Amino acid sequence: MKPVPTPGTLYMIPSPLGAGQLNDVIPPAVLLRLQQLDYFIAENPKAARALLKRAGMPRPLLTIRIERYDHNTPPAAIDSLLDPVAAGTDAGVISEAGCPALADPGAILVRRAHERGLRVVPLTGPSSIVLALIASGLESQRFAFHGYLPVKPPERDQAIRAIESRSRKDRETQIFIETPYRNARLLDALLSVCQPGTLLCIAAELTLPGETVHTRPIADWKRGKPDLADRPTVFLLLAR
To answer: More exposed terminus of the chain, fewer Cβ within 10 Å: N or C?
Structure first.
């Protein structure tokens, strides 16, 4: 009778938030684990290869298997990505930036791994959402992350009103992000819709040379807006 293989482990591997020094944001133990893996499931294989190259992989990159898993991956393909892990191969999950499965399609992959009884191990690294929260000075025991707000103005304004109301009612910090080239439009909407006393934290380019984190009332932001064009930014709101 053929022995049943011992399953491998699915490692959740963080990646830098930008082009900063890898050793400044990724612990040595995480880099060592990354260097030991030969199979990766990545949101963007090209970005993953660049990360592996920067991490100093001891083997040629051509010998390393990298499979794509993104928003366009059909649910039926998830099991095929996890089959090597079930058969005994350790794998690393890599997002475009930051921690995988957080504001990232990897969460569904991880859920399926749990359904199949596979071991999932999160590794330490940068998360723009967590870093922004702890640097904001806003309520950190009750918070909600909304991902991206609607793009169209009527729906976006309605969403802003709803989360501001929720924040005031529950004393809860509301966190959201935007595609960098639309940052200015989102900021204008926040300044137009929110109450003057509502606190807004704008955390831009976290862990990068241009990093800025400032928390001010909406009324103060109206007197001087930052230039957020093409800067990865996390927005945090706390109504008072």
So the answer is: N
**Alpha helices for the chain (secondary structure H):** 22-25, 28-36, 45-54, 78-86, 106-115, 128-136, 153-170, 183-193, 218-222
- pLDDT of 137-180, one tens digit each? 999 999 999 999 999 999 999 999 999 999 999 999 999 999 99
Against a cut of 0.85, is the pTM above it? yes
Examine the domain organization and report whether 161 and 224 are in the same domain: yes
Nearest alpha carbon to residue 103 among 3, 36, 17: 17
- pLDDT score, position 23: 87
Q: How many domains does the chain have?
A: 2
> Residue 153 belongs to what domain range?
128-238
195-219, pLDDT tens digit by residue? 999 999 999 999 999 999 999 999 9
